[in-house]
Amino acid sequence: MDTESFQLDPKDVERKINKNTKAIIPVHMMGQPCDMENIMAIAKKYNLKVIEDACQAHLSVYQGKTIGTIGDAGCFSFQSSKTIACGEGGGIVSNDEKLMDDCYTVQNHGTNRHGQSVTIGSKYRMNELEGAILLAQLEGAKERFETRNRNAAYLTSKLKDFPGLKPQKLYAGTESGSFYLYTMSYDKKHFNDAPRDNFLKAINAEGIGFSPYLKNGLHREPWTDHILTLDSYKKMYSPERLKQFKDDLYLPKCDEVCENMVMLWASGPLLAGQSDMDDIINAIMKVYENRDKLNSI
Fold it and tell me: Is 119 contained in some domain?
């Protein structure tokens, strides 16, 4: 992981490729494009597929291409918090007709477009109501997207060279991002060594809805111990391999990001006016000017 962009680090990806690797799945975190130029080069070098997790990245553009259309397939989420949403569900795009037919079949309980039950699959078909909700949003989706980008650029310009909060790094080639979230790294040494939670309490008291993103990474959740108790895992993997799985769950960069990230739920707040963006900046500066009081919160 790149702790400044919160994205997959291509160099780390290449180091971890082995004979069992079939695909690379870059996740466009917060709706900002990954370093796709290098990821695609690695995929070509090792003859791997690229599946873009573009769930947060509706309409984002990288090097002239819409995110989700650069790899072999792109996946989007329409869950309720997303910038284009219908409550739950998602969509897949690809130029590979066979792949799309296979995806259709699996989500249609194993039944293909010809009505033949050819494999196993779950029932993930979108209903008409969800489709209608999505279609109704498309007319204004681009305008809202541009507003979020404009306000995000304004916030970033105001935070330039500010030591306490560093906005998410965007890679060269990024033309626009969905700004599902507007995220920053918190550096406590510039806030009188106050914990991030103290900063968040102070900024929330000013009416600004900053929050953490995730309390901790998935590697610190109970499932990592639970699966080791399952007979299916014990049959599939040797004791040595299961031990290696646990030993490999040392992810300090993920821990660092979870500990220091500050976010604004951008899909709503970034649709406000510039004066509202000024309120955000003014609140940050007010807390910074009174940072000597943060440790007493």
Answer: no
Cβ atoms within 10 A of the Cβ of 73, count? 21
State how far the Cα of 155 lies from the Cα of 149, in Å rounded to an integer: 10
Alpha helices for the chain (secondary structure H): 10-16, 36-46, 97-107, 128-158, 196-205, 223-226, 231-236, 239-247, 252-260, 274-289
- State the residue range of the domain holding 174: 10-89+126-220+252-296
- What percentage of the chain carries pLDDT values higher than 90? 98
- How many residues are there in the chain? 297
pTM above 0.85, yes or no: yes
* CATH assignment of the domain containing 45: 3.90.1150.10
286 vs 124: CA distance, rounded Å: 49
Q: How is 220-269 classified by DSSP, letter by letter?
A: GSTHHHHGGG-HHHHHHS-HHHHHHHHHT---HHHHHHHHHEEEE-TTTG
Q: Does residue 107 lie in a domain region?
A: no
Count of CB atoms within 10 A of residue 36's CB?
Answer: 24
Cα–Cα distance, 58 to 7 (Å, whole number) = 17
Residue 135 corresponds to which tokens in the numbers above? 């279609």
Alpha-carbon span 38 to 13, nearest angstrom: 10
| Total of domains in the chain | 1
Mean pLDDT score, 179-190: 97
Domain assignment of residue 216, yes or no: yes
Is residue 28 classed as helix, strand or coil in its secondary structure? coil
Is the CB of residue 24 less than 8 Å from the CB of residue 63? no
Distance between CA atoms of residues 113 and 124, nearest Å: 15
Tokens of 157: 């310009």
- Residue 239 maps to a domain: no
Q: Which strands, in side-by-side order, build the sheet including 165-167? A: 165-167, 182-186, 261-264, 210-211
| 237: CB partners within 8 A, 6+ apart | 245
- Residue 266, pLDDT > 90, answer no
